[in-house]
């Protein structure tokens, strides 16, 4: 099998930012304080710096995220993956989300948490580490962000 040449880091960063801007859903992995994992697909809104998600207050994702403050996010498929380690920046009650933000989330995702009968808070997530690769030839240089700082200009 022939693989295309590895993308330079700046191109991988641009491709990753494009995914964050245009993808609607991703896999979100949390764990309880003892390490019991939980994986759930959720829709998200990227604002250029953070991801915004919403899920039921009773959902393990919400409970574990608030307990540990950490989450892992996977976008794409196994031959074009973006993996993000993020931290919880803030929890926003549904009633406190600015209209502009709530409207943007609903427009992008097709889901409006403000219309739910039960509590669906929003969670703002700040990426701390971002990695992206397509094939084995892109494993070297897959780190695009560490400690919240992008390596390449974008």
Automatic annotation (TrEMBL):
SUPFAM superfamilies in the cross-refs: FMN-binding split barrel
Domain named Pyridoxamine 5'-phosphate oxidase N-terminal: residues: 26-133
InterPro entries recorded: Pyridox_Oxase_N, Split_barrel_FMN-bd
Source organism, top-level taxon: Bacteria
Pfam families the record matches: PNPOx_N (PF01243)
Name of the protein this chain belongs to: Pyridoxamine 5'-phosphate oxidase family protein
Organism of origin: Streptomyces polyrhachis
């Amino acid at each position: 099998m022939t693989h295309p040449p590895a993308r330079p880091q700046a191109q991988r960063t641009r491709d990753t930012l494009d995914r964050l801007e245009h993808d609607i859903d991703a896999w979100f992995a949390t764990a309880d304080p003892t390490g019991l994992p939980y994986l759930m697909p959720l829709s998200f809104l990227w604002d250029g710096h953070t991801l915004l998600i919403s899920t039921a207050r009773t959902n393990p994702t919400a409970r574990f995220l608030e307990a540990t403050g950490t989450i892992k996010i996977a976008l794409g498929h196994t031959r074009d993956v973006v993996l993000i380690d993020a931290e919880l920046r803030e929890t926003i009650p549904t009633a406190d989300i600015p209209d502009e933000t709530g409207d943007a989330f609903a427009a992008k995702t097709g889901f409006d948490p403000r219309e739910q009968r039960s509590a669906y808070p929003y969670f703002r997530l700040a990426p701390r580490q971002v990695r992206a690769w397509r094939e084995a030839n892109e494993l070297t240089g897959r780190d695009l962000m560490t400690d919240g700082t992008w390596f390449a200009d974008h």
